[in-house]
Structure formats: C-alpha cells, structure tokens
Design brief:
The structure is a homodimer.
Chain A lengths: L7 E10 L3 H12 L4 E4 L13 E2 L1 H9 L4 H6 L1 E3 L1 E8 L4 E9 L11 E3 L2 H14 L8 E8 L3 H5 L6 E7 L9 E11 L6 H6 L3 E15 L13 E5 L4 E6 L5 E9 L18 H12 L11 E14 L3 E2 L3 E3 L5 E2 L7 H20 L9 H23 L3 H11 L1 H4 L1 H7 L1 H4 L41 E4 L4 E4 L10 E10 L2 H21 L4 E10 L19 E3 L12 H5 L6 E5 L5 E5 L5 H8 L10
Helix pairs in contact in A: 1-4, 1-8, 8-9
Bound molecules: flavin-adenine dinucleotide (2 copies).
The site of one flavin-adenine dinucleotide has 31 residues of chain B, from helix 1, strand 8 and helix 8.
C-alpha cells in the first residue's frame, strides 16, 4: 500500500500548466486530435467576471472549427461599429465625430467583434473539453520542473524528459498532495507572470509603458444619455482617453487612461501605487470625460474594476529544448484595449496543439515543432508594434502632437483599427514559408489577391464560402468542412462532373492520391472533392471511390435553386475550371497549392513534415 | 398527518395530459407566458427512437421564437431536395425522374425540412421547460375527469371547474399514489387514442384509409448505391410506393405501402392483422422496389419499425365548455408521409397557450378561447384533404389511373408538395378574420401579395427580414424581435428619423399610444419602432421615450455598410415611408394593420379581445 506521504508518480503525454484561454485552447486542440492531456491551474476556482472580453472574427472562426462557438454567437454582444467622439473646446465637452464599421475584412465570416466576459469564453473551451471528459485540475501548483538535457532522450519523441512536481492544494485528507508527473511535453500557459517561463529561464524583451490605465465593468442606468454606448467608442476627452466596449446584457467596459507613471507614488516593489484608485474614482473621471452626456450607474451595478500598467513584452524564445513551450500571456503581453490578449493566446494554442499531436502520434518529426515559435513570435511582435501605435492615440499629449503633425485622422482610433484590421481581426494573418507552408509547385499561378479577397493563398486561412453538398443539396460553408480534428485536409478542386469522360480525368487524380496514401497512410488526412459543376444525371456516387470519403465529402460550386446562396467559389478562390489541388493544414491554413497534373509535388510537400510509413522515426 | 391512503389534493392553473409534441408545446407556451402548469404522461419514460421525424420551416420559426431551435438546426438532417424515381418497364426497375427543391416558399426563413427522431425533437421542448423548472411527471395516469356544468362556475375564469384524479404509477412506497387535482383548465394532449377526448365524449369524423403502411428506420451500408438517399425521395415502383426520408447521422426512414386492408387477415378487434410484418419483410419489399439499385443494411443497423393503417380523422370539437381543450393527435390524425402530425400538434399548442395565459391573467375574456378551435380545426381539415390527395399518389393503382387521365406530373409527389407547399410548410397559413385577426382600418391599402411575398398580411405570420438595430448597428431578423413570451407586439413603422421635425411626428404616435397603455396597461405589450431611415446625427435616444422600451427596441430598415444585409424591408412589407402601425399577436401572426393617423382604431381592435383596466372581469 502507498503510504500517505509518498508522492504519486504518473506519466502523461502533455501537461498544460494554466487554464486560461491559452491553456484551454491548447488542451482542446490536443484532445480533439486524440491526445491524452492534463491541465492544471493554481486557482481554486475559475474566474467569472472581468478580464479580457473581445473575440475577434478569426477567433470566432477558430472556435467554430472546434464546434464551440455556438453559445458565443448567441449570447455575446456583437460589435458592428466603432464610434469616435472628440473634445470640442467650443462646448467644453465631447462631440460625435464618426461611426465606422468595426470589421472591414471582406472575407470575415463574422463581421463583428463578439464581447463577453473572459469566464464565459473560457466556458466555451471547457465545455469542449468536458465532452472528452477532460477536466481542469484546480488548486494545483507546480513546485519543480526539470527538463532533461540528454540529447538522445530529447530526440526520442517517445521519451518522458520533463519531470514536474505538482502540489494538489486541496487534496482530501489522507491522500497524497504531491505528485510527480513525467511528461513528454509541457506547455506553460500560466499567464503574464509565468512560472514555467521563469523556470526555463526565458527572458522577456520590451518594457512597461509609462502610463497607468483603469478598467471598469458596469451597467449604465437608463438615465445615461450617451447614444453610442452599444458601439465600441473612443472618447478623446480634454484630459484623458477612454475606450468604451459594449458587453453582454447591457453592460459596458471602460478603459480609462489615468496618466503617466510619474504621477503615482511608488509602492515597495518600486511600481506605481495604484491602491488609491477606486471604482468611484474611475467613474468620476469617466463622467467628466463624457460631458455633456450624462453617465450614471449605482455601486451594485459595478461588476469589476482594475488598474494596471501596460507591459508590452515578447519572450525571446517560445520553446525550450523542443519539449517545453510557452503560450499566451506567458510569452507576450500587450495593452488590453487592442483586444488582442485573449485572441492571440487562444490562437497560440490552436497553432501548437496539432503540431504536438503529430509528433506524439509519430506522424511528424520533432522539427515540426520549430514552426510554432517561427509562426507565432513574429505575429506577437507585430501585435506589439500595433499596440504601441494604438495606445499612443489615447494619450492626450501625444494625440495633440499627432493631430498637429499629421492631421486629425491619424489620431482617431477608428482608422487605426482599419489600418491594422488584417492583423487585429486575425483574418489577414499569413504565415511565412516553411516546411508546412510552402509553394512547392513553381507552375502554380502567382497569387492575385487583387482579383478577389477570397483567393486561396499559401499561408493564409481558408476563407469561408458557401458550396453545395452534392448528396443532399445542402449549402455547406467550406470552413465547416475543415473541422479542427488534428487532420490535414486534402482538397481536390476537380472541375466539372457532367459526363463520363470527366470520370476518367478524376480517375487519374485518384491514382496519384493512392500513392500518397500508400506512402503516408490514410489516417492523417480528410479528403474533400469540390466539383465546379455536376449534372442532374451524375451523382456523388460517380466520383471514383478512392476520392470519396463518404457522402458528406463531395461538394460542388453551385447552390442552384436549392437555397439562397450564389455559387462562384472557383472564381472567388482563383481556381480555374481545370481544377487544382489544395492541401490545408490541420489548423485551417493553406499549406500548398498544386496543379492536378503535378500531383507528385504533393509528395514533395508532405515529405517536408510528415513521416512516411517507411521512414525511421 | 396525512394517512398513506388519503389522496393528495392540489390546485393548478393548467393541467396538460400527455407529453408528446402537442402537450410539451402547450406547456412551454404557457410557461413562457408566466403560467404555472403541470404536465403528466402515462409512459414511465420518454421515447427515444422512431415516430415522427420531419420539422417543417414554419415550425422551425416557431421553435426559434421560443429560443429552442438551436440544437435542431445544428444536429438534424436538412432536406433541401425532393427526388422522384419511377418504374420503367424497359429496365424492369426504377429510373431517376426529377429532383426539385423541397421548399418553394420565398419567405421561409429555413429553406429545408429538418429531420430527426421524435424523442430528440421533444427534447428541445423539454429543455425549454426545464429552464423554467417544469418537469414532466412520468408514469402518471388520469383515472377520472369531471368538468363542472355550472354556468356561473364555468364563466368565472378564476374558478377551478375541472377535477381530475391522477394515479402516480411509480409513487414511492409509503407516499400516496392517488392525487385529486383541481384545475382551471385541462389540455388533452394524449395522442390519437385520447383518453381526455373520450371522457369529454367528443367524436372523431372521418375514417381509416383502406391501406396498410410500414415504416422502418435504418442505416444503409456503404455498398448501397442509390444516389439519392440523402434527399426525400418518392419511389413509384411497379407494385408499391415508397417514400424515403433522410435522417440524422446517415440514417433513413422508409414509408412503404403494403397493400390494401383486404389483403390482410383480421385480428380479434376486426383490424388488419399486421403481426406477420417484420423488419426483414419491409426491407425485402424495399430492396425489390429500389432495383436496379442495391439497398443493403444489417439487423443491428435497424433502429425502429412499425406497421399501421392511416386514420384521417378530425374531432368534431376541439373544446368542451371553454375549460377542456384537445390538441395534436387527440383532435386530428393523418398520414405520417405528409410529415404533418408533429408539426400540426406543436402548432396547436403554440396557438392555444397564449390564449389560455391571457384569460388566466385576466387580460382577456373567456371568448378569446373560442378562437382556438376556430383557427385550428379548419387547418386540420385542410391538412387531411391534402393528405388524401397525397397518399393517393403512393398507391400503385390509383397512380396508374392518375397518370392515364392527367399525365405523369399529377402522380409525382414532388409537384404535390409544391402545390400544397403553403399549407405543408406552414408558411402560408392565414387565419380567418376574428376578434384577434381583423382588418379594423378600412382605409389601409388592400393587400397586394403580388407585389412581394413578404407583404404583411392580417392573419399571416410575420415573415423573417433583416433590419438593423440602431443602437448597435447589428442586423436583427424581425422574427427574432418577436419572441414567444406571451405578449402582443406593437410595431410602429415610424418612417424616417433624419431631422427634428420628424421627432415631432413621432410625438403624435407616442401620444396615441399613451392612451392605449393607459386603457389596457403596458405589461401586455412589447413595443417596437422600425424606422425607414436614420441619419448619423440622430440616434435611438431621439425616439420619444414613450415609444422606446429599451435600446434593443429601435430598428431601422437599412443595414448600410455594417453588414452584408440589404435593407428594403419597408418595400418588401408593403409599408409606405409615411409609416403604418402593425399589431402582432403573441404567436407571431399579424393581428391588424392601422394608419398612423388612425391610431384610435387600435383601441377598437384591442377592445375586441383584451380587457381594459376598467372592464369588469
Ligand atoms: C486582471 C487582468 C485584467 C485583464 N484585462 C484584459 C482586458 O480587459 N482585455 C484583454 O484583451 N485582456 C485583458 N487581460 C489579458 C488577458 O486576460 C490575457 O491576454 C489572456 O487572459 C491571456 O490568456 P492566458 O491563458 O495566456 O493567461 P491567463 O488568462 O492569465 O491565464 C493564466 C492561468 O494560469 C494560472 N496560473 C498562473 N500561474 C500558475 C502557476 N504557477 N501554476 C498553475 N497555474 C497558474 C492562472 O490561475 C490562470 O488561470 C487581463 C488580464 C488580467 C490578469
Ligand atoms: C407508433 C407511431 C409512429 C408514428 N410515426 C410518425 C411518423 O413517422 N411521422 C409523423 O409525422 N408522425 C408519426 N406519428 C404521428 C406523430 O407522432 C404524431 O402526429 C405526433 O406525435 C402527435 O403529437 P401528440 O403530442 O399529439 O401525440 P403523441 O406524440 O402520441 O403523444 C401523446 C402522449 O400522451 C401520452 N398519453 C397517452 N395516453 C395518455 C393517458 N391516458 N394519460 C397520460 N398520458 C397519455 C403518451 O404516452 C404520449 O407521450 C407516429 C405516431 C405513433 C404512435
């Protein structure tokens, strides 16, 4: 029998430390790819109010791909517009300046920012995990972390080179509270003050900004007569900058610039002492800033508030020895006003999870994991560049300077949002060329993004588009045919199926794919056929059996008389009717595009990052 | 202390007997209107397989209005197309004839039939009830029913003239199993062999048809090569008629015509003995009928099957003494192939619930309840007329006769679906003039349904249409602004709000409504304003406060640059820019349409069925 004091000892494929948006997204991605995962958090309970609140269009698409976006779409507030009010000395108050769409990306499936509290959003991911019987181990604190330095052990993907001691803070009396976990991989998702990052000795680059901010969540009384409180609104008042974020259930969040760090006394850690800032004080500043509009609430309608200094920092590395990864705030922090923290964090997890899963399943070499930092670190740096620029606009002094030097528009945050929209919405992200994102086929047409914003582009996410499913004439959005299940999607844009000769053409593609499946196995892929047209006397059963996963996998670019959708996908995607082959990464980004006549190039592409059945591990 | 043998005795506003689709819909409607309800069912457990399976477009809209359609839309199979195959002697097998859209109603919000098993669909309503802590009392059997004949008691809406004895079949030992319930109203939702109907002595009109049918649910093996098994398909084979209904999770239901009643021996109740019909026998017939296509399954993939004779009957009355009502199969039965049983049943409940609630809350006189039978009985009769015509098409003999006499099309069921589409989809239902559905304003333009199928029409449901919510620029479907909450919706189509003068015009409408609210109270209504246009410098706060429920209640006919929607609602609805007033019943049907200049007519309309604060009860 185990004595009470002897620590438990266990093995796990992946241990995730921290159950915020980053950790939960990582765990969900791993779970959906069939990987056993444990996720622990130091907190005894989940948070339920405050914190991050804006989900960007690309993140909604990603949540869609996990099938967990539903409640978000139903219950969040949808921000369609961004308004701007500026101080006008002639009325000694603020005045309406502009109201513009929040989202300008033509390919965004959702043309809004979804706002809700962070606890709710974490709940979406938790529900997804619970479907797979994964539960967060709360009140669990890691106390030691050892990562092997033995090259052989690190290289052997089946080894367990990470050793962590966990302390179960509320272990039942008589049960051991300590546990030693041996993991193949560890993911540090433990927020801005990451213990994992600290243990790995990864430094952060960048610094705190010189300004102090407040944030407060409350419900205004009906007597409040500001007309734009259901839109994101930037208020450039005389002596402060405020950003209003409308939230679920008629709530609002205000971000309030409180002034320079120098204006605050220092606490004993040498940081500005914000302890004298209260909810009342924040509301007072806001009331003054909104003049001549009336802003009223009562103490019981104030849900949450905080004061903070923005740290704009990126970790020098996102990975240690190929076995320990950091995600989310643990590796990058920025100003909450840009609404990026939670979005970037979840997308880190989305990016990392399928890669870990591929290595764990012996599908890919360890080198695949290098692409995580290579893809996410430059993105984090870009976000911070945006963040600095954006935060600037809220500072009364620097704003005045910008207006003087470059005209009013530069200082408005609406246009800033638009300029950086591809980045902040997440829609425009294009991962750089790498083993998983490469234009292997030199003969494929140069991408003409001018032609259509929907053009399929290597490194960009597959845009949403309505197609028709042949077997049941149902409109299917292409994104919905690409679930985040850990598998690569092989899409055959097969041209028309209107005669028996065309069946012959498809037989050639079938042949080519047979070799691929023979070399790499079929279990890593989900095969889709998208026809340009199909005649009434042909059916999905006329697609050669080797190209047909099941009745759901044959789509056609036409929704004819069966629905309101319009067709035109081939043209929008930039695919000629002669067809093309598109490989999509498990996270929904285009991996490569190949001519149907050059299918052997697919082998070149896949060999770059997938193991063949005959390859040594 | 209560002795074990003494029955419990209790009071309730409404007792619903039977928790099928009709009873559950009635209970949900009552609950949402704030009425206390109990619902009992004789079964020990809910059904989980088989039975009805098709939800028509209008029913999805109704489920939407209760906020319970979500899972249906996500998890059901969506039928967009109806295919037809006919026997061709030259190949001694069936041959593809046509494939047409299942739904041709241009205003249908959902252009498909949603299929899933009856247990799942009941689950949607149950979840809605559970939100209000209402649970079905299973294994509960009514054993006696007494309805007072005392006129005074019956007329006094606050009395409890219904006395029912309930037997709790699985009462815990030591607790009384009998209970006497005194109810203000009872609703019999206990299916085709309704005990309630029997106790009330209400006869059915109509008869059983002369034909025996089988139904079977199974998953075909992949080797089955019939290409249309994901569409509703009518198969007119040589010696039988089959209707295929695709279902959730790659399942199918087949309805199979088994022949005339005379071909069966009679059982001891004098009914055709169908005991020799087995799943294998049904599959054998189907296999022959589908030749030259292969249809294969295995016994473990057969989920449910049955054999039955269609009864096409309507109860002579749907109500007894204003206190006992019957809904669903208890008052009308038809052939399942038309897919109407469950839909009509739920819509009975939807129609009845708000009326009962209005009377129970002393908002309306008892006479309101007469409109239930007046509206639903003619509809049931029409359905049966359709049903006879439709079932005919499946009978090999009568089909041959129809083809001979009127050409092939008449015999196809696709066109039949189209001809009766307004009826079967539920979209075209128009309730006849009555106290709740009346064109009180003779000056309102004659309705020109030719102009636009979306024209608002007294007696028809409010069609779906995208508007923009002024406060947050969000596209809102008008139907979503009309939830089934038991309240009437007063819609002011207020014209433009682009200058201060227009505010003055709105003040006049505000004045008129103030009188209405004074007379009838505000708690019975939900007020909506739909502007034809709004300028940037005006906001929802410029709508007079008496017309403004909250920030969600001001909509505008324009979605401008903020989304993909197109505007044009005024034109589609047939509303001039000078505006109009539309009263919508709590169930989403247009009650009346009035000129803004004649708002006193609203008082005429409402007085017809709502009590004024000063009216005697
Ligand atoms: C007070 C506060 C307010 C914020 N406000 C906003 C906002 O308004 N808008 C916005 O966009 N962003 C805001 N952020 C940032 C945003 O919440 C983060 O970008 C986002 O939550 C990052 O997700 P994450 O999972 O990386 O980190 P977190 O959400 O911080 O999650 C980290 C998790 O790790 C756990 N943890 C920490 N240390 C350990 C440990 N040693 N062992 C085990 N578990 C540990 C924590 O309990 C926590 O659950 C705020 C953050 C904080 C802390
Ligand atoms: C075996 C079968 C197969 C069917 N197949 C189809 C089909 O394929 N397609 C289709 O459209 N329709 C079909 N129907 C009809 C369809 O199910 C009905 O139109 C629909 O269910 C009617 O709903 P309802 O609530 O009025 O009645 P039901 O669904 O019959 O519900 C009545 C409820 O009352 C309960 N009940 C009965 N008697 C009592 C009592 N004395 N006390 C308390 N509770 C009682 C029953 O247990 C039941 O739960 C089928 C019906 C049956 C019985």
């Amino acid at each position: 029998m185990t004595s009470v004091s002897a620590p438990l000892e266990s093995l796990i494929d992946v241990l995730v430390i921290g159950a915020g948006p980053a950790g939960l997204a990582t765990a969900l991605g791993l779970t959906r790819a069939g990987i056993k995962v444990r996720i622990v958090d130091i907190r005894a309970q989940r948070i339920s109010v405050g914190h991050a609140d804006g989900i960007m269009p690309r993140t909604i698409e990603v949540l869609d791909s996990y099938g967990v976006s539903n409640e978000l779409i139903r219950k969040s507030h949808h921000v369609y517009a961004i308004s701007n009010y500026n101080y006008d000395p002639s009325i000694d108050g603020i005045k309406y300046a502009s109201r513009v769409p929040a989202i300008n990306e033509p390919t965004a499936r959702y043309k809004y920012i979804a706002t809700h509290n962070q606890g709710f959003i974490e709940g979406l991911l938790l529900a997804g995990l619970e479907d797979a019987n994964v539960r967060v181990e709360q009140a669990c604190k890691p106390t030691s972390l050892e990562l092997s330095s033995c090259e052989d052990e690190l290289k052997d993907h089946a080894s367990y080179p990470v050793k962590i001691t966990l302390e179960h803070l509320s272990a039942a009396p008589g049960t051991p509270s300590s546990e030693i976990v041996h993991a193949r991989f560890i993911v540090g998702a433990d927020g801005a003050h990451s213990w994992v990052r600290h243990m790995l000795g990864i430094p952060m680059e960048g610094d705190s900004t010189a300004r102090v901010w407040g944030a407060i969540d409350f419900t205004p009384l009906p007597s409040s007569n500001f007309p734009d409180w259901r839109n994101i609104t930037t208020v450039n008042a005389a002596d402060t900058g405020i950003m209003l974020i409308p939230r679920e259930c008629s709530k609002v969040r205000l971000y309030i610039e409180l002034g320079s760090v120098d204006e605050f006394e220092q606490d004993d850690r040498g940081r500005p002492d914000t302890s004298k800032i209260t909810a009342d004080k924040l509301l007072d500043i806001a009331k003054r800033a909104f003049k001549p509009y009336i802003l009223e609430t009562t103490p019981d309608k104030v849900e949450w508030w905080t004061a903070y200094i923005i740290g704009q920092r990126v970790a020098t590395r996102f990975c240690d020895r190929g076995r320990a990864f950091i995600v989310g705030d643990a590796c990058h922090t920025h100003s909450p006003k840009g609404g990026q923290g939670m979005n970037a964090s979840m997308n880190d997890g989305h990016n990392l999870a399928w890669k870990l899963a591929h290595v764990l399943k012996s599908w890919s070499p360890m080198a695949l994991l290098d692409t995580y930092e290579a893809e996410r670190r430059p993105f984090a740096q870009e976000l911070i560049a945006f963040d600095r620029w954006y935060a600037e606009g809220f500072n009364a002094e620097s704003r005045a300077k910008l207006v003087r030097e470059k005209g009013l528009e530069v200082a408005l945050t609406g246009p800033a949002f638009r300029t950086f929209s591809a980045l902040t919405t997440g829609i425009g992200i294009q991962y750089a060329p790498s083993i998983i994102t490469s234009q292997v086929s030199p003969t494929v047409d140069v991408i003409k993004t001018e032609t259509s914003p929907f053009t399929l582009t290597v490194g960009k996410r597959v845009p949403p588009y309505a197609l028709m499913r042949v077997a049941d004439c149902r409109p299917i959005n292409l994104q919905d045919a690409l679930p985040s299940d850990g598998l690569s999607k092989l899409i055959v844009f097969a041209g028309p199926l209107t005669s028996l000769e065309e069946k012959g053409r498809l037989a050639e593609v079938e042949e080519a794919l047979r070799d691929i499946f023979h070399a790499f196995g079929t279990d890593k892929f989900r095969l889709l056929v998208i026809l340009s047209a199909v005649s009434d006397d042909m059916s999905y059963k006329d697609v050669p059996v080797g190209l047909r996963k099941d009745w759901t996998s044959i789509l056609v670019d036409s929704t004819s008389s069966f629905s309101n959708e319009s067709g035109g996908a081939y043209a929008a995607f930039g695919i000629p009717v002669t067809g093309k082959f598109v490989a999509v990464r498990p996270d929904g980004y285009v991996g490569t595009i190949i001519e149907l006549s050059e299918m052997r190039r697919l082998d070149d592409y896949l060999r770059g990052w997938l193991l063949r059945s005959s390859d040594p591990l």
